[in-house]
Design goal:
Elements (H helix, E strand, L loop, with lengths): L2 H8 L10 E4 L2 E4 L7 E6 L6 H19 L2 E7 L3 H15 L7 E3 L4 H5 L14 E6 L5 E7 L7 H17 L13 E2 L6 H14 L2 E3 L2 E4 L4 H7 L10
Parallel strand pairs: 3-4, 4-5
Antiparallel strand pairs: 1-2, 1-5, 3-6, 6-7, 8-10, 9-10
């Protein structure tokens, strides 16, 4: 079986993101360049296409919000680097927006196939809208896949990165519809002793529904200070 097809079938959350070297709109680039930072690595079907253009503009507008939480943006498509440059320049001429992140040129689709960004049932040449959230240790923490005709909701991608970071820092989980100002889900008890302690805490603090669902506030001052100005969604600015 072809190695890239094997990777296609097996690239999952919790795996190390495969490294690569490529040319981009910002020059030569490697995935390992981002070690120590979180990364939103996303593909788009093609330059000079309407949905993709709105996404590049939206990512560019949200760039500073990602930057504040130690997160970089990196785009990729199977277009040439001159095409990327012309598209980026056209966006700037029409909107005044400078695209602040690199876009990889993957002409032969090697990286796209390695990351499962080409869905042969949709297109054998264009990438669908994949998003890989990779943490500061190079581990894939989340994978999102959108069809070609539906644009991504950038504030949700930002929220997802923040949820992962907060969960790591607080040893907790996030409930449905969680936002950075909300309480987090505390860890569930694993022993009878912990169970009784949890029930006693619930009776005293009224901070949950039952022993298996209780809440606690964010306790990481660093993340709270980073995100103090980020509680408003980027689309409101």
């Amino acid at each position: 079986m072809d190695y890239e097809i094997m990777m296609n079938d097996n690239l999952k959350i919790g795996m190390s993101a495969p490294d690569f070297e490529a040319n981009s709109s910002s020059g030569p680039i490697k995935l390992s360049d981002y070690k120590g930072k979180w990364l939103v690595f996303f593909s788009h079907p093609g330059d000079f296409t309407p949905v993709c253009t709105t996404e590049i503009i939206a990512f560019s507008k949200a760039y500073t919000y990602f930057e504040k939480i130690n997160t970089c943006l990196l785009g990729i498509s199977v277009d040439s680097n001159p095409s990327h440059l012309a598209w980026i320049y056209d966006i700037y001429c029409k909107t005044g927006i400078k695209v602040p992140f690199p876009i990889i040129s993957d002409l032969n689709g090697t990286i796209a196939r390695k990351y499962g960004m080409i869905s042969s049932n949709v297109s054998t040449t264009e990438t669908v809208r994949n998003v890989f959230i990779i943490d500061d240790s190079g581990i894939i923490r989340a994978i999102l896949i959108y069809p070609m005709n539906v644009g991504r909701f950038i504030p949700e991608i930002l929220r997802l990165v923040m949820a992962l970071q907060y969960s790591d820092e607080n040893n907790a989980s996030t409930p449905a519809n969680w936002n950075p100002s909300d309480f987090m889900i505390d860890t569930s008890p694993k022993t009878v002793s912990e169970l009784h302690n949890k029930i006693e805490s619930l009776n005293q603090n009224h901070n949950g529904m039952s022993w298996y669902l209780s809440f606690k506030p964010n306790t990481t001052n660093l993340l709270n200070s980073k995100n103090k100005d980020n509680n408003k969604s980027p689309e409101n600015h």
